[in-house]
Automatic annotation (TrEMBL):
Belongs to the UreF family. UreD, UreF and UreG form a complex that acts as a GTP-hydrolysis-dependent molecular chaperone, activating the urease apoprotein by helping to assemble the nickel containing metallocenter of UreC. The UreE protein probably delivers the nickel. This is Urease accessory protein UreF. Required for maturation of urease via the functional incorporation of the urease nickel metallocenter. Its main location: cytoplasm. Keywords: Chaperone, Cytoplasm, Nickel insertion. InterPro entries: UreF, UreF_sf. It is found in: Cytoplasm. Pfam families: UreF.
Amino acid sequence: MQLTSPSLPIGGYSYSQGLESAIELGLVHDESTAGQWIADQLEQVLGYGEAPLWMGLYNAFQNDDESTIQQLNDWFMASRETQEMRQETQQMGWSLLQVAESLQWCSPQRINLMRSLDPACLPCVHAGLIEAKGISAQAGLTAYLFSWLENQIMAAMKSVPLGQMSGQRLIQQLRETLAQVCEQAHNQAAQTPLRLYNFAPQFAIVAARHETQYSRLFRS
């Protein structure tokens, strides 16, 4: 819980991952459309790319497979469609690594391995710390996805805006999807080669337009 808490000082609250841009464009304007946008991103973007990648990284750390760790980290960095999204995962990965080193959450060898990736993306650092702490892959990925979901809901509450009860209703509805995404990620990560794809062109275009918004609350 500490590893995925919104109070962890890694800056997750400052990013909307395209949601603020979708609001600016009128694609998201109430509780229903916010829920649909977040659900689509969870199932079709994270579900096919980031979640199975996280699972693959966890397995690679478990097997001390440095080559696969490097390969998957590089794939994720290359898959970021916008400059803001690349900066986001790089900054949050670096910040989480700083916290882990300060609190001695894993061995110096594991810290040095993740530093050598330069830059280490957020899912890589998170998966590496979860495995180092002996937490199961299922629990770790569920917590990772719930933290993402909670940040999206908070972004929607601030910028749509939505009330607190709307936010709780969305969390209650969407958390049921987390188990499905985790199961799918497990199945994709069990295949050789690891099944990863990141094809969401409308999402990429909407996220890219965030960079030129007149005003904004979030960094992506």
